[in-house]
Predict the 3D structure of the following.
Amino acid sequence: MATISATTFSIGSTVSFGVRGSSPPQTKSFAVRLATQISLPSFNGLKAATSVNCESESSFLGKQSSAALRGSFAPKAQKEKQGSQYGLQPVASYKVAILGAAGGIGQPLSLLIKMSPLVSALHLYDIANVKGVAADLSHCNTPSQVVDFTGASELGNSLKGVNVVVIPAGVPRKPGMTRDDLFNINANIAKSLVEAVADNCPDAFIHIISNPVNSTVPIAAEVLKQKGVYDPKKLFGVTTLDVVRANTFVAQKKNLKLIDVDVPVVGGHAGITILPLLSKTRPSVSFTDEEVEQLTVRIQNAGTEVVEAKAGAGSATLSMAYAAARFVESSLRALDGDGDVYECSFVQSDLTDLPFFASRVKLGRKGVEALIPSDLLGLSEYEEKGLEALKPELRASIEKGIAFVQKQPVTA
């Protein structure tokens, strides 16, 4: 593509002022150029420009985000000496809380969410070291006001009036550590935090990142049930990183433009429970049996790949933050009325005989508007076998989470 002299505008949302097509729901990225002369206020740290080139190939979002900022701005006509232009005014109206904001995922995630034009308030909570993170982020000239909260005594206040709660809190994986090894520590953390969410913002979207997600999401559900505020449409296990990895690896393998690639990933969020549906890849592309095996195994073990590469110094924090920010932005767009938001997520589901299952879902103002069953139709023989093989392990992880809460009383 030829480029034009312009400021590149990429804040995790994709801009389009054209008519949205009626193509099937998918999460691939796309590129748009605005030929119109547009004046942008510097709310997001960008200088006003005479034109905007939105050709970023690393957007958080996919094709269905064609109206991402259309709902975020109120266009108003402005008359200037050099001709008619359009002014864009941000409408930042949502509060997001990050529980575990000082951690390896929490810090980059906080930065990425701070960049969203839809966020008016960003509440950062952790048991320590969060004050400095908030002070640092507060210097970024984006709309959201950053407020820090430290320790259990301030947890409740961090959740007051919040629309989206993101929970990356917990210990990271270390070399040789399985997701099950994380269970006892992170299960208690997730339980206590979700109890606070139930007490202070029961209507919020809840995004669970804390591993093992296959167990922590059922833990959250049981806590919310015991508190009498469970809404299955608003509880999400964030599996977006599996989709991000699948898209990246397939694009690299097949020499495709990354912005064109969309691979649905279903099942769970650990090992063999992660099932990339390569036969459903868009654009349609053929794979040899060997390529299917290699890509599937790499996607399933990508977290371990990062843990080993960091040699004990951490886990997949940056890519996880990126993927989580994408899911937050999608949730905010849905809350803001965008009717074309689709993501894969680990949610309560009836698509299989498992009570929770990761699949593509349509998001709306009230959470999950619909599960998308079409991805599970017409699977390849390899995928059919993979689906059946993952069920016992995923079921065991779900039941482990449920049993954990049932054995312990929920704090009143």
Summary: Residues 125 and 149 are 5 Å apart (CA to CA). Residues 1-24, 27-90 have pLDDT under 50 and may be disordered. DSSP finds ten helices and 17 strands in the chain. The two ends are 59 Å apart (CA to CA).
